[in-house]
Amino acid sequence: MADIQLGAHTVQSHGVKVARFHMHDWIILLLLVVIEVILNVIEPFHRFVGRDMMTDLKYPLKSNTVPFWAVPVIGIILPFVIFLAIYFRRRDVYDLHHAILGLLYSVLITGVITDAIKDAVGRPRPDFFWRCFPDGKEVYDNVTTNVICNGENNVIKEGHKSFPSGHSSWSFAGLGFLSWYLAGKIQAFDRRGHIAKLCIVLFPLLCASLVAISRVDDYWHHWQDVFAGGSLGLIVASFCYLQFFPPPHDANGWGPHAYFQTLADTQSNTRMTHAANPLSIRSLEAEAGYIYTRQQV
User: Fold this and answer.
1) Residues noted as catalytic
2) Do the domain assignments include residue 296?
3) What are the tens digits of pLDDT across the range 3-38?
């Protein structure tokens, strides 16, 4: 494992500079938050649900094994804590900033896509019968046989949001990003054959899978909803991670693109400045505050 120690890249020394450079990214992130709120407020499409369709929608109305509030804790706060722990060890604000920004984009892009599809599709949940008829007394339109629900509006509204699963997509977006991040940090694919590292890489995905499975067990989603949500979250997480970090199998997979780009620019500028008195590469890095050491364990 490579132990990276970076100098002069703390939040205090470079945090403001990095945040300003990515100011437009943070503004768009806030816009995604607003869109996500709107998508949760508006009424979803109420798909036709006939008498014959109710046969497959009579599963029990249960509470959530994984409550809604636990999803951001699992998918956002937990990875954030791990990012902070790695920052305090290596003092690299580029890594911390891009990990947080990439994680938030992963979750929010996934959330917007998920809820937009939910509202547009309006697929009834497996427990829709009891949401629509909490007293068990079925009422249908005499002409179309469409349901005439007498349950609570909010409960019925949620009943039309089965596809895709939000718990699954959010969990795989956050924990999928964390899995990519850990794979790079521990150099899981450095071709040295330390297969035990895969246990660390796959553990977040296992947690996300268990969250997804709970949605089927609770009868809040069909299996297709969970599969689609998980796939969506993992795909978006992959794109967001690779926007900021090299692939984990890359020789530089342990650090963000920004670090190596800044290092290259600094070395180039310093060479030009000191053309009359050339310095070694290591001296350039020390002078620029980009000292790092790599110790093989």
Assistant:
1) 167, 221
2) no
3) 344 455 666 666 677 778 779 999 999 999 999 999
